[in-house]
C-alpha cells in the first residue's frame, strides 16, 4: 500500500487554496508584504524594508530550493503578498508556476537580476552559446549590491510612501556589503598572492571569484546534486593535473566520496564555500555567510602563496 | 427466391478511412510546420558594442559589474551632494574598482582619472595590463551610466563622447537580461 499522498488530493488542495480570498491572509492595512524565494533575497529585502514592510519566504526554511516542489500551503501564502522578489534566472523557476496557481496570478514580480551583468552557466549547463546563464548571481558582493539597488527601486515604485526609506536603507546595506569585501581584500594584502588556478565542485562560485580576478578552470559536478560517473571523474582528475589547478572549492554541508577521491588523487587543497541556501531565514544571514565565504577565499589564496 | 450478397470478410473501407485520416493529419501537420514563423536569428552586435557575457575576459567581467554598481552609488552621491564624488572619496568609500586593493592589481592595475563632460562626468581607467583587462571609461549623465572598453593601455579621447570613442576604437559594453532564461 502506498503511503504517498494522492495526486488528486494535492491538486484539489492547491486549487482550493488558490481560490481562497486574498484578504484572508492580508497583513494589517498599510504594511506591505513582500515575498521571497531564496535565503539571500530574504536578507536583501529585510534590510531594504526594515520595519516598513513584512518579508515572507514562500518556501519554509529547511527545504532545498534545488529540489523544491510547490506545496498547497506555500501557494496559499502567495495570495497574501503585495509583490514577490525573484532571482528569476533559473534558481527559483518554481515560483512562476506557484504564482500562476495562486489567488494572485498577476502578482507584481521584481526581477532582481534585471541590471546584473550575467555570466554564462558553467559545467554541463554551459550550452547554447552562452545564452544559458549562471543563476548564482547572489554569491557575489557586487552583484548583490546591484540586486539590492534594483529591488529597492522597484519596491519603492510599488510602495511610494516608503520609497525614500527603502533607497536609504539599500545604500546603507550596500555600504556594509562592500565593507565585507574591502575587509577581505585588506587581509589578502598581507597574504602575498592574488592569483590562483581554481576548480569548483559546483558551478556556483564564478561570480564571487570574478570579483577577485580569478577564473574557474574546471567544474567537477556535471549538474547540481549529480555525482560524476567514474569516466567523468577520471577525465576531471586528468584535466586538473593538466591545468595545474592549485585549489578546489567545494560546497559546505556536501560531503562526498568523489570530492575526497579527487583530493587524494591530485593532492590539491580543498576548501568549502556556503551556497547560502540552508538554515533559518534571517536579515543578517547573507552577511554572515558571505563573510565566511570571503574568509575561506582569503585563506585559500594565502595558503597557495609561494 | 431471396438473394443476398454477402461481402467477403475484409476491412477495405475502414482501411480507406484510416488512411484518409492519417493523410489529413500529415497534410495539416506539414502545413502547420511549414507556415510556422521562423524565429528571428539573433542580430549581430554593432561594431562599437561588445557583449558583457561573451566578449569580456574574467577580469573585465568583474570590473564591468563593479563599475555598474559604482555608477549607482555615484549617481546617488551626485543627487545628495550636488556634485560628483572625487576619486579619493570613492576610494575612501571602499568602492571598487576605485579602491586600491590587491584585486585591482590582479585585474589590470588601472590608473583612474576624473573628467567633466558636457552634461555629466566620466571616470577613466587606463590599464597597466591590457591582456588581463582593457582600459575602461564610466560615463554618467542625467539619464544613466554607460561603460566603454578598449584593449590597450590608452586614455580615452577628451571629451569621451560616443563618436570620438567609437572613432578611437572603443566599444560600449552591453548586457542582456531575459527573465526566466531557463524557464
From TrEMBL, chain A:
Sequence similarity: Belongs to the bacterial solute-binding protein 9 family.
Matches recorded under InterPro entries: AdhesinB (IPR006129), Bact_metal-bind_prot9 (IPR050492), Lipoprotein_PsaA-like (IPR006128), TAT_signal (IPR006311), ZnuA-like (IPR006127)
Protein name (database record): High-affinity zinc uptake system protein ZnuA
PANTHER family in the cross-refs: HIGH-AFFINITY ZINC UPTAKE SYSTEM PROTEIN ZNUA, HIGH-AFFINITY ZINC UPTAKE SYSTEM PROTEIN ZNUA-RELATED
An example molecular function term from Gene Ontology annotations: metal ion binding
Keywords assigned: Ion transport, Plasmid, Signal, Transport, Zinc, Zinc transport
GO biological process: one example: cell adhesion
Keyword Nucleotidyltransferase: no
Signal peptide limits: 1-26
Keyword Iron-sulfur: no
TrEMBL record, chain B:
Keyword field: Plasmid
Pfam families (UniProt xref): DUF6162
Protein origin, superkingdom: Bacteria
InterPro entries in the cross-refs: DUF6162
Protein name (Swiss-Prot/TrEMBL): Uncharacterized protein
Source organism (scientific name): Azospirillum baldaniorum
Lineage per the UniProt record: Bacteria, Pseudomonadati, Pseudomonadota, Alphaproteobacteria, Rhodospirillales
